[in-house]
Amino acid sequence: MESALHRFKAEFFKALGHPVRLAILDALREGEKSVGRLAEELGLEQPSVSQQLGILRQRGFVEARKEGTSVHYRAADPDVYTFLDLGRAIFERQLKTQSDLLSELQETSSPS
Amino acid sequence: MESALHRFKAEFFKALGHPVRLAILDALREGEKSVGRLAEELGLEQPSVSQQLGILRQRGFVEARKEGTSVHYRAADPDVYTFLDLGRAIFERQLKTQSDLLSELQETSSPS
DNA sequence: CCCAAACATTCATATATTGCAATATACCAT
DNA sequence: ATGGTATATTGCAATATATGAATGTTTGGG
After folding, report:
1. For the segment B44-103, what is each residue's pLDDT rounded down to a tens digit?
2. How many angstroms separate the Cα of A78 from the Cα of each of A25, A84, A99, B9, B92?
């Protein structure tokens, strides 16, 4: 018996568990951008960006606005950046802990 | 060229993108618990819990303390709960938006 | 030393994601 | 209509992740 809530929340986190999707969200901090511009800034092919945007859109992380032939995307909820930044802080603490452990292991030249 | 930072951060989110791992973290809000107790509370097999704990440990989300034959786990950084709760708020807003969209679609009985 | 309890790891298989290339669609101008 | 530009979708092989059963390992008791 594994709560449905946890399954949904897992989907939420999974949506953020991809480097390109994180890069897209970061690029959208500066405001609305077209697919082409995102592709250019991130140095990726248009179809890749479009595909990841599709996933972010499905999950409600971004919203699209059509203008002529191009589509402009923006973050759906600015609070997601507060969230990402908090994640970053925790993430960096984890990195530090891990590198501390690493150097601790290296101090003893003869591991166990 | 896709930043290494985004790759690492994606790993961070991926670690949280699993229902059992989220359930484990939630269960540890109440404090340290043994593997067996977690398995019992969550209604899962011990190996499954142990495996997911292993992943959470690798990524630095939990820490273990050995006591006799059993191992007690706790959250490595209490701030992760602030983070999860903020995620929950955003996640719920997304759900609401999506259900709004859904009912909007259903108002028109003849979908385009 | 031998057994049992509590965890951890391994392995095989099923399932899901990714990355990429090709193709399709929408829109605008001529 | 035709062509060009901007986005979206699809198909598929490669890879990664999940699931569940079996097996290892460590610890403490007798």
Report:
1. 999 999 999 999 999 999 999 999 999 999 999 999 999 999 999 999 988 887 777 666
2. 10, 10, 32, 19, 14
Residue A101, φ and ψ in degrees, nearest 5: -60, -40
E strands, chain B, are 33-34, 62-67, 70-75
- What residue numbers bound the domain in which A88 lies? 78-112
The answer on A25 and A6 residing in a single domain is yes
Tell me whether B10 touches chain A (CB under 8 Å): yes
Same domain, B63 and B110: no
The protein footprint on chain D, as nucleotides within 7 A of a CB, is 4-10, 17-23, 26-28
Tell me phi and psi for residue A63, to 5 degrees.
Answer: -130, 150
Q: Burial, A62: exposed, middle or buried (Cβ in 10 Å; 0-12, 13-18, 19+)?
A: buried
Q: What is the Cα–Cα distance from A98 to A84, expressed in whole angstroms?
A: 21
- Inform me whether the C-beta atom of residue A55 falls under 8 Å from chain B C-beta atoms: no
- Measured between beta carbons, the chain B residues lying within 8 angstroms of A83 are 83, 86-87, 90
